[in-house]
Amino acid sequence: MTRITTRPYSQESFSQLCRTGVHPVLARIFAARGITEAEELSTGLSGMISPVQLAHIGDAAGFLADAIAAGRKITVIADYDCDGATACAVALRGLRLLGANVDYMVPNRFDNGYGLTPEIVRQAKEHHQTDIILTVDNGIASIKGIEEALALGMQVLVTDHHLPGDELPRNCIVVNPNQPGCSFPSKNLAGVGVMFYVLLALRAEMRRRKIFDEKTQPHLDQLLDLVALGTFADVVKLDANNRILVAQGLRRIRAGNMQPGMAALFQVSGRDFRKASPFDLGFTLGPRLNAAGRLSDMSLGIECLITDDRGKALEMADELNRINVERREIEADMRIEAREQISKIHPEDRATISILSEDWHQGIIGILASRIKEKYFRPAMAFARDKDGKIRGSGRSIPEFHLRDALDLVAKRHPGLIVQFGGHAMAAGLTLQPDGFDVFTQAFENVAKEWLTHTQLERIIETDGSLDDDCFTLDFIGLLDTQVWGHGFPVPVFCDEFTVINQRVLKEKHLRLQLERNGKNYTAIQFGNNATLPRRARLAYRLDANEFNGRTSVQLIVEHSEGI
User: If phi over 0 gives left and psi between -120 and 50 gives alpha, with beta otherwise, what is residue 350?
Assistant: First the structure.
């Protein structure tokens, strides 16, 4: 069941925005997203929240400054997704600019599992002669790994953004906006954002020590292309602070001021960096980096982002592209089997969907869970067995269901069932005991039935209402494109009734439409839908500037359609 609604907005905020010169339709859109003043839309770096508001960041800066002065060896331990890869690249590039002796390790998804494990710690000590471990995009839950590092005589600095568990790391410095006692106004920094903030604080500390001044200090803004990529690809909420980080990164990319690896990824994906958009970050570059961590080794992605050799960057980007093609092929086969399983459990009668296959690829179950969640609008968990026989799962959720908290409740109700888990409200991962799937499936379903109402399991298409006739223009699309839209600051979707003049199915899965409204004709496309519409239809749609044969025209991207 899908229901179309119109976002409410504050009339007071709308009026205030209009008084400051904001286009009336944009004022309505912004007011519906909680914007009260035009200043909140600024994407200048001066609008960033100060690093000093992050708990313990001063301690981290002093610690790293001392380590650099003493020539101590720092090893960055990264996560194996896009946020982790970009956070690692930011750490390596930034720390080297500031004079650090720094290397990195990234766990292999299949051999090591997630985070700072005791095994990774021992490898860091033995093979890298590490003095200091610096985690990026992980570490807040790595209690045993941190204890092992301390026992081996190393020190640990955790930079992370994930929600902490019941037990917090001890005897180390932790920078995480989501740790207890941190008053940083934005709890939505990605792992790469946290690391970038640590570098800003470190540079300020080194200025204080007169190692350099504002004229001679390294320019950390050269890392913003990486910060933008990791932030958007990790689907964190685009609050005002994150919108600044992404907008600034996109500005540099469009000007050609980016790492060679970023330029190479644009090239192999056939995208024009001069017109770089959030879509490119989240759905073009991000998946190519993620594919390395899913099927192979994220070291390839990190090396692509840290090399200054354009030829090597292009070679590695080509390999990342090849791996991503392979990922899509594997995913397609998994989706066929998933549909067969789901058809047997009547998803419309359930609050959750949990499926397991002995043969599924562990690196792709997260994508599979996401596809299932989107199709059925249910919290979804996909599981595969690892080499030790344990069941590894990845989950995606819907807005009203906090996935990590749900897993926590299942773990408390069934001690020993879940070996480990972690994540966010919308995405999480876990490991079950070898025989734990059936028990987990029912326990997870019970929690969802307790927490979710029937209405909350309806897919809701939130729109910004009707669009004025004079807004179906490239100029208005240009106004929309001045903002960074994404999770938590959703791209504008409008809703109107149209007459369907003509329609045809493309490639057996997309619907091409010719529409009429108030005497004007429009072209539209609905991806992933091959069901034709009656002559009158109600559409929820986005505006798009479509380029074809050197000509740019307005096109409607239909999100949902229904006959009337």
Answer: beta
